[in-house]
């Protein structure tokens, strides 16, 4: 059964965040809120966590996982960014965007797109995730909590607990955070491509 934590959305309890971070370091798969919708997350190098996310979401090896980063400095360790892209991403973060970029050698191979060698990165504007990332000291490997054959992610922590009780280890509930996933911007080819129009305003990239 998954452990369930009710966390304040603006002032997350430090002790609870520390407990969740310890669970992630120990290999736990976590369902947690973001500034766009709920996500599944595990430790960066966890092969078991990746396999479990793929199984829950029925994903193939072409799926772009996302590294949820605390800040721009951390993001820069895991992707290659030229000056123009740097400025564009800097202006849009933190926020409801995922950026696809060429990965550095810091990213485990199993996370990379098999042909492009790219990975998704984002910096969330959500107090609970920021507190968790600060406690972890590294990115959280993540994927939107969207189940197969469903059009929208689940929005309630208690519902996630009920439905995924035996598939995740921890559920962090800080209330409804919406159903619209991030806007996805691909910079990996040298040309900007809007892959998915979501919660983030695309006008700044058009």
Tell me the total number of β-strands: 10
Termini separation comes to 46 Å
Average pLDDT over all residues: 94
What percent of residues adopt helix (DSSP H or I)? Answer: 25-40%
Count of runs of 4 or more consecutive helical residues? 6
- Runs in which pLDDT lies below 50 for 5 or more consecutive residues are none
- Characterize the overall form: globular
Protein structure class: alpha/beta
Order of helical and strand elements: EHEEHEHHEEHEHEEE
Largest sheet: 10 strands, mixed
- Oligomeric state of shown chains: single chain
Radius of gyration: 16 Å
Task: Output the strand order for the largest sheet.
Answer: 1-8-2-3-7-4-6-5-9-10
Share of residues in strands? 15-25%
Question: Can you tell me about this structure?
Answer:
- Keywords: Nucleotidyltransferase, Transferase.
- The chain contains six helices and ten strands.
- The protein is an alpha/beta fold and 206 residues long.
- Strands 1-8-2-3-7-4-6-5-9-10 form a ten-stranded mixed beta sheet, with helices on both faces.
- It is globular, with a radius of gyration of 16 Å.
- The termini are far apart.
What order do the helices and strands come in, and which of them pair?
Layout: E1 3-6, H1 14-25, E2 30-32, E3 39-43, H2 47-57, E4 66-68, H3 72-75, H4 83-92, E5 97-102, E6 118-122, H5 127-136, E7 140-144, H6 157-163, E8 170-173, E9 183-186, E10 193-196
Parallel strand pairs: 1-8, 2-8, 4-6, 5-9
Antiparallel strand pairs: 2-3, 3-7, 4-7, 5-6, 9-10
Helix pairs in contact: 1-5
